[in-house]
Task: inverse folding
């Protein structure tokens, strides 16, 4: 049951690996309350784990926490719909009502929970082993008395499975659908290590004493994995010791570190950057070489999934795998091909039934040559759409072994189009007839722009593969003729501008949240920055007209990359990507739109990559569509021709380009410098070259470094190893005096930085919680201070986070030495009559920071000089009332690689009642 990641040729050095690992470790998802979108049949908002085969979504409080287990191969043999495999429910009833803090650590692919009630805390660490079919949750209990923890194993619908025991294992056997015919079966073999356990029915009862640890291990094997699936599941866990688990965990972490080492990006917008890494995390969780491909919703299968969770062929199935290309994660594409190839005979039969040759594919595939939906929906483009991933993979890698695998099937797709296209002699062109761009559009639909792009890409791939394989020279000439004589993309006028039309006859322009008008650009690759100016402008006009595509249900997976490919305003692209990463994303970093699942891992990955690097028009362009005066770096992104490209930009100046040639061949680069370029080959200066495009011969394994003429190799190497320098401010301070920075906001709740629940105005008609400057009242120095106030209403969640300074235009980098320092004066009833007598409410307050990646200081684990968490709820009772308290927080300990975007003051005291009030003064970050 082991799987491994394939390794590529050696990199030039470890620079990319070090940079990638540094950045990936910064990003986590954080929950302070349990997720709520769990069983709606689409993207869940839960903490997520996966190893490319098994997926786990974690829902509920620790008193009733459910691990929803899905598996890519758990498709019903009768309905051809993917089914949930099972559930593991953890019940720590004694901690009912505990606090909830859960962190999804993407660097290590672990989810860690902290649950506190009174003086007792239970912590958990969960992971799906990257190298086996094993799920692990470790428990550690501190404080209080003994706890009894129930661990129940259920079937996919939450019912009781068939159970047995062998040794210390609780074995639960489950099935997809009815469990008859070709429905797969699986076993979950569960046991605990450490402390006392007993088994009754489908439940393990674990008894833990304070100060102890225990580990739940569950082996998960399906009948698709092995004919001896029951014994195989038992073998995964039956003899494990804690030492064995620790060894597995070390190997698991090593796999993920190797995964992250393959490429990196670093940009000033940390929310977008986080989304890029989060998307790659989700990609590795759902797809793995040697395993079944993921369906629409990945392997997080919690119930009956929309559209059967199948392989939807008219863009949904293809899109998530595009994310593996430019990010240099080709191994994550390996699972893609098999269900497509398995349907070939059925595709040939469907084509024949409709009077065609070659293959014709429907919209809904499922594994092993089956389908949940054989309806064509008036579309002929599905097979060409499926071909796009295969062609693009070959163009990126030049891998002839891979070409040998898929070339026969691609020829069948080509055969269909060779005979389906009609020749328009009067206009010397091939025409696509009766092919709808949207599902179920009525005929006629002629020359769909979507299909023209996909058919162009198909024949380009066939020509290039046949050349590389030295096969089918005569047929290649036919393909070349078709490719060069396809009809031009249809256009129309809209508001005085030329835009791309969906069809030449039929559907014209539709601004409904789809981006069919733009898919000839990406993935179709028909228009780019080397196209003629008129085509570029028409394409940009089209992007501008598709105003609903930025956040549309179906468009984002391909729209952002299309916009970048034609040079659309990069600030607009980044602004919308920021919205995708914040407004449209769950804490687990899954971008969610109605109707869209794991296709959305391609939104930020390819969208951002095409801004930073383009190569599809036979030359490499770095920072191809990047905002002026904006720094950025990337390492080992993959370019057409199997070149790993790294580059850095400081302000308006490109600093260097590094290209590692993995297969050899000519390296063609658009010169980003106005003059001559110094060329280093494998560390040796070969002199300067010049020209708008530079072409350099390479052999496999060569490393080519480029920089402005006269730049030393030592300078390039130093720039490669530096982190991104954004030019942000080095410190910030305010005493809230007239000479200090004016507040950006007064009395304003930060809706995206924490919000407000259960808190009203403190008195006298005040409409809500307050945070504003008061002069001549109470101050630490000078005459001004920031006053905070509010009134808690006694709900289970009483909190208010108010923003007062915006540093977003020049984010403050934390680095290795920054400290947050401020003075705070929490008032009691003795100094404010609006605070109830005996109340410590006013001490449940802290200065909070929102970082550019959307995370906060309060949830980062940072502590003050006394070891108390820098979270308002954890300052309760630790600040002395009616006096000035000095609070300092070492920011670098937990947030060294982050940048401050906003400064807040937060109140957080669940279940509290009555007013709170106080002052903050002499705030510094430096």
Result:
């Amino acid at each position: 049951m082991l799987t491994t990641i394939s390794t590529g040729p050696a990199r030039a050095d470890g620079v990319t690996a070090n940079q990638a690992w540094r950045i990936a470790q910064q990003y986590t998802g954080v929950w302070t309350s349990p997720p709520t979108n769990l069983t709606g049949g689409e993207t869940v908002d839960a903490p997520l784990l996966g190893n490319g085969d098994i997926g786990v979504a974690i829902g509920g409080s620790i008193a009733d926490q459910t691990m929803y287990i899905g598996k890519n191969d758990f498709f019903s043999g009768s309905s051809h719909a993917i089914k949930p495999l099972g559930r593991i429910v953890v019940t720590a009833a004694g901690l009912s009502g505990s606090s909830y803090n859960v962190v999804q650590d993407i660097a290590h692919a672990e989810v860690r929970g902290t649950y506190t009630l009174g003086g007792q805390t239970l912590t958990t660490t969960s992971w799906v082993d990257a190298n086996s079919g094993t799920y692990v949750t470790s428990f550690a209990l501190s404080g209080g008395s003994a706890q009894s923890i129930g661990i129940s194993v259920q079937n996919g619908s939450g019912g009781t499975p068939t159970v047995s025991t062998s040794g210390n294992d609780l074995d639960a056997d489950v099935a997809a659908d009815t469990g008859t015919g070709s429905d797969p079966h699986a076993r979950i073999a569960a046991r605990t290590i450490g402390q006392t356990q007993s088994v009754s029915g489908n439940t393990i009862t674990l008894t833990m004493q304070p100060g102890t640890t225990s580990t739940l291990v569950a082996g998960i094997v399906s009948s698709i994995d092995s004919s001896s699936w029951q014994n195989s599941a038992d073998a995964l866990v039956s003899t494990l010791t804690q030492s064995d688990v620790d060894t597995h965990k070390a190997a698991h972490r090593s796999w993920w570190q190797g995964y992250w080492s393959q490429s990196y990006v670093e940009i000033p917008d940390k929310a977008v950057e986080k989304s890029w890494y989060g998307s790659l995390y989700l990609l590795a969780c759902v797809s793995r070489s040697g395993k079944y491909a993921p369906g629409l919703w990945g392997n997080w299968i919690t119930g009956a999934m929309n559209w059967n969770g199948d392989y939807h062929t008219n863009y949904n199935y293809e899109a998530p795998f595009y994310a593996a290309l430019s990010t240099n994660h080709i191994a994550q594409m390996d699972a893609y091909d098999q269900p497509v190839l398995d349907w070939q005979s059925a595709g040939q039969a469907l084509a024949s039934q409709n009077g065609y040759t070659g293959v014709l594919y429907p919209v809904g595939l499922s594994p092993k040559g089956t389908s949940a939906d054989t309806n064509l929906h008036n579309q002929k483009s599905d097979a060409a759409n499926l071909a796009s991933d295969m062609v693009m993979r070959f163009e990126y890698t030049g891998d002839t072994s891979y070409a040998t695998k898929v070339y026969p099937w691609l020829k069948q797709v080509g055969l269909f189009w060779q005979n389906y296209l009609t020749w328009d002699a009067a206009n010397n062109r091939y025409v696509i007839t009766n092919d709808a761009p949207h599902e179920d559009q009525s005929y006629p639909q002629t020359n769909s722009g979507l299909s023209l792009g996909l058919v162009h890409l198909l024949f380009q791939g066939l020509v290039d593969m046949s050349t590389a394989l030295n096969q089918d020279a005569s047929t290649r000439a036919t393909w070349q003729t078709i490719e060069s004589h396809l009809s031009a993309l249809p256009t129309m006028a809209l508001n005085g501008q030329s835009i791309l039309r969906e069809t030449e006859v039929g559907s014209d322009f539709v601004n409904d949240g789809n981006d069919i008008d733009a898919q000839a650009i990406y993935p179709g690759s028909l228009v780019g920055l080397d196209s003629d100016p008129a085509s570029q402008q028409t394409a940009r006009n089209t992007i501008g007209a598709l105003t609903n595509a930025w956040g549309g249900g179906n468009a984002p997976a391909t729209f952002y990359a299309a916009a970048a490919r034609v040079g659309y305003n990069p600030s607009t692209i980044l602004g919308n990507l920021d919205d995708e990463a914040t407004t449209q994303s769950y804490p687990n970093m899954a971008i969610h739109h109605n109707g869209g699942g794991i296709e959305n891992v391609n939104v930020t990955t390819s969208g951002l990559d095409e801004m930073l690097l383009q190569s599809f028009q036979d030359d490499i362009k770095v920072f191809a569509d990047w905002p002026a005066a904006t720094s950025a770096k990337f390492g080992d992104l993959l370019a057409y021709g199997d070149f790993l490209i790294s580059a850095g930009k400081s302000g308006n100046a490109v600093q260097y380009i590094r290209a590692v040639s993995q297969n050899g061949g000519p390296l063609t680069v658009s010169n980003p410098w106005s003059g001559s370029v110094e060329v280093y080959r494998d560390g040796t200066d070969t002199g300067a070259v010049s020209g708008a495009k530079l072409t350099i011969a390479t052999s496999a394994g060569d490393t080519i470094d480029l920089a402005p003429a006269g730049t030393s190799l030592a300078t390039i190497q130093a720039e490669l190893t530096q982190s991104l320098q954004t030019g942000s401010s080095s410190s910030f301070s305010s005493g809230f005096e007239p000479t200090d920075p004016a507040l950006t906001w007064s009395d304003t709740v930060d809706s995206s930085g924490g919000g407000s629940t259960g808190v009203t105005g403190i008195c006298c008609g005040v409409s809500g919680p307050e945070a504003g400057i008061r002069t001549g009242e109470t101050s630490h120095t000078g005459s001004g201070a920031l006053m905070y106030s509010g009134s808690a209403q006694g709900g289970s969640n009483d909190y208010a986070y108010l923003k007062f300074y915006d540093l977003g235009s020049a984010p403050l980098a934390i680095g290795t030495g920054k400290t947050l320092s401020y003075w705070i004066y929490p008032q009691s009833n003795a100094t404010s009559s609006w605070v109830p007598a005996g109340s410590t409410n006013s001490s449940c307050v802290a200065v909070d920071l929102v970082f550019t990646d959307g995370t906060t200081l309060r949830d980062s684990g940072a502590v003050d000089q006394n070891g108390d968490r820098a979270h308002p709820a954890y300052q309760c009772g630790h600040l002395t009332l009616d006096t000035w308290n000095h609070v300092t927080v070492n920011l670098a300990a937990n947030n060294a690689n982050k940048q401050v975007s906003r400064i807040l003051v937060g109140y957080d005291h669940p279940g509290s009642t009555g007013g709170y009030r106080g002052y903050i003064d002499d705030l510094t970050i430096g």
